[in-house]
Design a protein that fits this description.
The protein is α+β, with helices and mostly antiparallel strands. The mean pLDDT is about 95. A hairpin with a 2-residue loop joins strand 5 (about 60-65) and strand 6. The chain has two domains: about 1-185, Ribosomal Protein S5, domain 2 (2-Layer Sandwich); about 195-340, Alpha-Beta Plaits. It has helices spanning about 75-85, 115-135, 140-155, 215-220, 225-245, 250-270, 280-295, 320-330; strands at about 5-20, 25, 30, 35-55, 60-65, 70, 95-105, 165-170, 185, 195-200, 300-305, 310-315, 340, 350. Helix 5 packs antiparallel against helix 6 (about 250-270). The longest helix is centred in the middle third of the chain and has 21 residues, at about 115-135. Bound molecules: (3R)-3-hydroxy-3-methyl-5-(phosphonooxy)pentanoic acid (PMV). The site of (3R)-3-hydroxy-3-methyl-5-(phosphonooxy)pentanoic acid (PMV) has 15 residues, from helix 4.
Length: about 350
């Protein structure tokens, strides 16, 4: 039995692509090393949360989760696990019937980190709900910092999707205000070309990979290169931060490609199913290198924990890059599929602001 009116909150949160990769975690979703990513513009998850007070006090959290219009048992279980964990932080959760409706505007399983955008959208809805229940409006900074902390508990990379632009997560001496608990936007100066950075995602395969990122993180605990990796990633984060501040785009390119290949070197030395690259992935990398050299460009590739390649370039190179993708790279993509995205400004509230 349910009383009172229901309330609806909606957020759209973008995905992100890391240039410095978070790989390995400790305690509850704390990163072994710092990371840095580009928040995307188009590729996003939209989530609506409807909540209504229960008539009777029941300790159990009650929720239904719909994805693309249909009940989704896997996402429901994942969300229930997170909400259960959050009960001490958000003690009001068991008092409400919760219904989530979530949609991705990018094709499912296409190598875009959907856990980053979906967990960020979910966290934003929960923090908005918290404001309403507690009649307490947070400052903008406090709101997004809390959402980033909650998102992190669902998926580490989601902590970064709560902010637009270039975002870091994980303590690093070279970045003021960096934290392991939540992500922080990286301030770019007005003239930085990174304000106009773009990402073409080349879909080599849409097949769900054998190795989940949770298993990959866990394998890092016993990896023989563990210590070396933590040191390498933190040094790369420091170097890329300086390169961004100094407009050293060649250095950004070198460090980013080194990170992508290091992630995969760790992956395929972790487990027998850790070889996620495909022959097409390597063809694309070779083509990008040749194209870059013959045109004197500073564009580059990065790869997530899968076979798909992100071609990172700048707006002023678009005229030459698009024909290159169409004529040279799309043939390596599954059904010729690729996604045209760019740096974005971060999440969007889809329902009217409340006064709380
Ligand atoms: O957020 P998770 O637990 O899915 O881990 C993501 C790890 C990488 O995508 C490989 C790197 C990153 O920093 O996004």
């Amino acid at each position: 039995m349910i009383s009172e009116e229901s309330t609806k909150i909606g957020w759209s949160a973008p995905s992100n692509i890391a240039l410095i990769k978070y790989w390995g975690k400790r305690a509850h979703q704390l990163p072994e090393n710092g990371s840095l990513s580009i928040t995307l513009d188009k590729s996003a998850t939209t989530t609506f949360l409807t909540f209504q007070k229960k008539d009777e006090k029941v300790e159990k959290i009650s929720l239904n989760y719909y994805f693309q219009g249909e009940r989704h048992p896997k996402f429901e279980t994942k969300t229930a696990r997170l909400l259960h964990y959050l009960r001490s932080e958000m003690p009001f959760l068991p008092d409400y019937e919760l219904v989530f409706h979530s949609e991705n505007n990018f094709p499912h399983s296409t190598g875009i980190a959907s856990s980053a955008s979906s967990m960020a959208a979910l966290a934003l809805c929960l923090v908005s709900m918290e404001e309403i229940i507690n009649h307490q409006k947070r400052s903008k900074d406090d709101f997004f910092r809390r959402a980033s902390t909650i998102a992190r508990l669902g998926s580490g990379s989601a902590s970064r999707s709560v902010f637009g632009g270039i975002v870091t997560w994980g303590c690093n001496e070279s970045i003021a205000a960096s934290s392991d608990e939540y992500a922080t936007p990286f301030q770019l100066h007005n003239g930085s070309r990174l304000n106009h950075i773009r990402d073409i995602i080349l879909i080599v395969s849409t097949k769900v990979k054998n190795l989940s990122s949770s298993s990959g993180h866990a394998l890092m605990n016993v990896h023989p290169y563990r210590e070396g990796r933590i040191k390498q990633a933190n040094t790369n984060l420091e170097k890329i931060s300086n390169a961004i501040r100094n407009d050293d785009y060649l250095r950004i390119m070198e460090i980013s490609e080194n990170e992508a290949l290091s992630l995969h070197a760790l992956l395929f030395t972790s487990a027998s199913d850790g070889l996620l690259l495909k022959p097409e992935t390597l063809h694309i990398i070779e083509e990008i290198k040749q194209f870059r050299e013959s045109n004197g460009l500073d564009l580059f590739f990065t790869i997530d924990a899968g076979p798909n390649v992100h071609l990172i370039y700048y707006d002023d190179q678009r005229e030459i890059v698009l024909p290159f993708v169409q004529q040279r790279l799309s043939r390596y993509c599954e059904n010729g599929q690729w996604i045209d995205d760019k740096i974005g400004t971060g999440p969007l509230l889809l329902t009217p602001e409340t006064d709380s």
